[in-house]
Amino acid sequence: MNNLLSQNLWSFIWHFLKPYKNVCIVYVSLALLAGCWGPFNSMLIKSIINSLSSSQVDNISVLTWPAVLLVLNFVVFDNFTWRSIGYLNYKFRPVIKNQIISDVFRFVLGSSHQFFHDNLSGRLSSHVITLADNIERILHNISANFIRGFSLLMVAFVSMYYVNPTFFYILALWFLAFSSFSILMSKRLVRLSDIHTGAESVISGQLVDSIANASNVRIFAGRLFDVLRLEKYLLVTKETFQTKELFLVKLNVVQGMLIATMLGFMVYFLIHLYGQHLVTVGDFALILGLGMEVGHIAWYTMQQLDEFNEAVGKCKQSLSSLIVPQEIKDKKEASNLLITKGQITFSKVKFHYKGTDPLFQNKSVTIEAGQKVGLVGYSGGGKSTFANLILRLYDVTDGHILIDEQDIRDVTQESLYHNIAMIPQDPTLFHRTLMENIRYGRNDATDEEVIESAKKAHAHDFIQALPQGYAALVGERGVKLSGGQRQRIAIARAILKNAPILILDEATSQLDSVTESYIQDSLWEVMQQKTTIVIAHRLSTLLHMDRILVFDRGKIAEDGTHIELLAKGGLYKTLWDAQVGGFLPDKRHEKTT
Fold this sequence. Notes:
six-stranded mixed sheet; four-stranded antiparallel sheet
């Protein structure tokens, strides 16, 4: 489904309309009928006026059918068509809108790790809603008015031609001039709308950025600074809005003058032809009625064109931000990852981040099934990158990463993530209940299994102490909990998932010493029969690892157990001796001579 979403707006819209082709045909037909109401009304009024002015006026029956048809015209062409369009909107409008939101949401969630680093989450969610709202406007409001206007114009052309070809030519020339001018000017309006929409989007991003960092704003007394900083963006938005609206006012003035010119020509030729007895009194009423109807609907339609251009501009901007080529994609023939042992192999792996020097060059290393391996080294040495490549948050530049002899690029990402549990150093939670946050590790888990996992993670006691217990909401990103409490929820989630491969990024760093000792025992139990990778900043957590890999500038400088590495007297011993309070120093201190 994700691969079918196009950044081209019309291809994107058609993707969602395609299942409802028959409904679209009915919708268009109803909108075309709706446009016939005005012209048919004018024709019936012409018939009544001509009958009243003829010698047959004493015969009341000649007025009966036009009068009846006048009522039926309202019932059929106006009331029935618009109520039917309303029913179709009621039936399908929310379905299509929800499908757009759902599919775009699925697509965005499949975007790369880097994509979410480069885009504000609030701005992305705003783009999803903006896209759905404006496609809804185009499909269910603007399109019906466009089709109705087209229908009315066609009927008016035919009616005027049969009264007298002169009026047809006047209307045709006027419409050509009016539409050409309006469409030409609308291109300028599209650019102004895009600029204004872009300015509004920037404001949205700035608001999200400040609100998401509300604690920093408070701590650094930055409220006034951020408000004043926002003012310059608000000023740009005001100026872009005023520029767009002033242009629109000028455009409407010229459009109004063009409509008045058309009516002036109509009136002139009506009087002239009536004086020559070439048109009837009823024709007089018909042409004036159609002229005013066409002028009104043309003006209204051009206003709809402005709304259309604005909606299109917003949709295109949202599409360009959301539907971007996905860097990490499943192959068409990708299979599910099947783990029988849990062996992880790096084979001649090369990798570098965009715009940076190579980090890994021909890296080859094998982590045996069930091994507990620690990763240590200075910041920037490649520890987190090593784990991220296993998770396929980034693709290797060259070489292969294999799990049980299966290249992770040949299996589905979903199956890869299903078989790996990750406990990050600074976990974030959903703004949901504690029960839901823990159950996210395995959505089919029972309440009893969730509670048992919380007990193993030593989270059960503090959860029970909360007024709402497991039903308590944790706030955005888990802000209602302390760092240690969030860490324990993340550990409980990983315990519940029970995946064959476990990755820990200093999973106990935010815990107090007593709680850490309890959880270390629990984690040790969880590690059994699993391939475990532990990224450590506190080397004391690695004493019982089967193996320790020491990273230095993308290379594995040393490989062995804690005792073996200390005996070598190399980089690991330097790190061990340099620790203060159990943590690694932030960076390498180069030797000076």
